[in-house]
Amino acid sequence: MDPQGSGHEPEAAPQRSAQPRVLAVAVQKGGTGKTTLAASLAVAAAEAGERVTALDLDPQGSLAGWGATRENDAVAIDRLQPWEIGQLPEILDILAQQGTTLVVLDTAGSSTGLAPALKGADFVLMPVRPSRLDIVAARPTLQALVGLGLRDRLALVLNQCPPQPSPRTSAYAAQLRALGVLAEPGINHRVDHQDALAVGLGVTEYAPTSPAAEEIRALWAWIDAKMRVSDAQP
Ligand SMILES: Nc1ncnc2c1ncn2[C@@H]1O[C@H](COP(=O)(O)OP(=O)(O)O)[C@@H](O)[C@H]1O
Ligand SMILES: [Mg+2]
Questions:
Q1: 31 lines ligand 1 (CB under 6 A)
Q2: pTM
Q3: What's the topology of domain 17-232?
Q4: Which ligand lies nearest to the CA atom of residue 62 in the structure?
Q5: 192, burial (CB in 10 Å: exposed 0-12, middle 13-18, buried 19+)
Q6: Whose CA is nearest to atom 27 of ligand 1?
């Protein structure tokens, strides 16, 4: 993490700034769409008025690689090395002084060492594909988050859903909704997501009027509202 590397200019006032909200994208399985959703949600949140810093906690560095190909600074992007995760509270202080209002954490497909980062999150989004294997694989992460006191600050989002109606996807959505852990809307499998990330864009930048962009904007609105309700609770 290079605090000077942020795209946001420092605030003039030296006093302590309000802490940014933290949205973590995490689930203990690779390929479910964590990086894809973290990138496009970070951009959508910036378009909605947040000053966003996206931090790549995954040693693979996919999000940072996406950031390196970006040509605008709508979102500040940095990497956090595994040994820096424990310093996240201090890093949030620095980002607050630089004007960041929202931090998006993209994480690796393993929860090892992530607890200090997840514990301080305002919300944890867990992308899963609408398959039994993915949903079962999400359980250890879910249990770990509940153990960290995040039961009311987490949700699974069904990602890479078939664009045509699927009874199985609807059944999974109904089960998760009944448990109160479903983020909505689900995100369909669309090549716009792949094409956007390939050229360093969020999907709302790449194809602003596409259904993929609309789904991402709606998902950010859902998460934003949910975070505000959670933050208002003691
Ligand atoms: N909604 C989606 N539509 C189409 N492809 C997607 C979608 N979400 C993710 N993908 C693709 O799935 C693969 C894994 O996504 P990625 O974001 O790298 O997952 P993770 O970070 O969880 O490992 C990538 O090839 C990505 O382009
Ligand atoms: Mg990833």
A1: yes
A2: 0.93
A3: Rossmann fold (3.40.50)
A4: 2
A5: buried
A6: 194
Structural domain boundaries in the chain: 17-232
For 2, counting Cβ atoms within 10 Å of its Cβ (0-12 exposed, 13-18 middle, 19+ buried), the class is exposed
pLDDT tens sequence for the chain (234 residues): 654 444 555 555 455 578 999 999 999 999 999 999 999 999 999 999 999 999 999 999 999 999 999 999 999 999 999 899 999 999 999 999 999 999 999 999 776 788 889 999 999 999 999 999 999 999 999 999 999 999 999 999 999 999 998 999 999 999 999 999 999 999 999 999 999 999 999 999 999 999 999 999 999 999 999 999 877 776
Strand partners, 21: 102
**What is the C-alpha separation between 191 and 196, in angstroms, rounded?**
8
Rounded alpha-carbon distances, angstroms, from residue 78 to 4, 73, 91, 160, 170: 10, 12, 11, 26, 37
Closest by Cα among 142, 168, 171, 167 to 155: 142
